[in-house]
């Protein structure tokens, strides 16, 4: 019975119908095999065959569950073995060499007359450029005008350049500086 609705369980009804059908098949087979015997003998033979069939199915189901439990118990050991195998390469792996990226020319720092190459910049210098552009988005536009969008995307990240361009198109980006007194 289903607790939520109080109706009979459809799975249980299906199982019961299957068992009744199996019993009818076995009774018909016993009746055909033992035509001259009494009703009690035929019923006993049918019960014996039904019991053997149910016992064989239960035994097969138990063997399957034992196999599943053994596989689950062995899974961590197999995973550890696979991890150990993965850590040690069986065949030496050839080293992959990527071509060097082409240098990107950057807008020089304010006051500097020489041009910079992205690959020549230290991490701190790149962060300095990014901090500068966070304070003044006009640097992105100037860089794009002078060196192109690809160079700006490599220095300031694609997402940041796209955001600055999107905001400037919307008119929400104030690229100038005004004090409270001027406003």
Q: What are the secondary-structure elements, in order, as H or E?
A: HHEEHHHH
Roughly how much helix do the residues carry, as a percent range?
55-70%
Q: Report the total helices.
A: 6
- Strand arrangement, major sheet: 1-2
SSE-based structural type: mainly alpha
Instruction: Provide the number of structural domains.
Output: 2
Report the C-alpha radius of gyration, rounded: 40 Å
Amount of beta strand: under 5%
Mean pLDDT: 77
Shape: elongated
Beta-strand segment tally: 2
Low-confidence stretches: 101-107
Distance between the termini: 76 Å
State the major sheet.
2 strands, antiparallel
Q: Quick gist of this model?
A:
This protein is mostly helical.
State the main characteristics.
183 residues, 2 domains, mainly alpha, 6 helices, two-stranded antiparallel sheet
Describe the structure.
- With 183 residues, the protein is mainly alpha-helical.
- The chain has two domains: 10-87, no CATH class; 105-170, no CATH class.
- It is 64% helix and 2% strand.
- It has six helices and two strands, in the order H-H-E-E-H-H-H-H.
- The protein has helices at residues 10-33, 39-87, 123-135, 138-147, 149-156, 158-170; strands at 105-106, 116-117.
- Strands 1-2 form a two-stranded antiparallel sheet.
- Residues 101-107 have low confidence and may be disordered.
Question: What topology does this entry show?
Answer:
Blueprint: H1 10-33, H2 39-87, E1 105-106, E2 116-117, H3 123-135, H4 138-147, H5 149-156, H6 158-170
Antiparallel strand pairs: 1-2
């Amino acid at each position: 019975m289903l607790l939520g609705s109080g109706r009979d369980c459809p799975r249980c009804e299906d199982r019961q119908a299957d068992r009744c059908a199996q019993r009818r098949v076995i009774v018909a087979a016993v009746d055909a095999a033992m035509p001259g015997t009494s009703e009690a003998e035929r019923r006993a033979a049918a019960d014996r065959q039904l019991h053997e069939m149910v016992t064989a199915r239960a035994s097969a189901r138990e063997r399957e569950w034992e196999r599943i439990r053994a596989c689950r118990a062995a899974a961590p050991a197999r995973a550890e073995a696979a991890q150990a195998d993965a850590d040690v390469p069986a065949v030496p792996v050839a080293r992959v060499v990527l071509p060097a990226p082409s240098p990107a020319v950057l807008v020089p720092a304010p006051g500097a007359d020489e041009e910079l190459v992205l690959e020549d910049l230290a991490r701190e210098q790149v962060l300095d450029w990014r901090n500068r552009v966070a304070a003044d988005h006009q640097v992105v536009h100037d860089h794009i005008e002078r060196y192109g969008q690809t160079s700006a995307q490599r220095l300031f990240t694609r997402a940041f350049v796209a955001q600055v361009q999107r905001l400037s198109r919307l008119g929400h980006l104030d690229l100038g500086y005004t004090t409270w007194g001027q406003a």
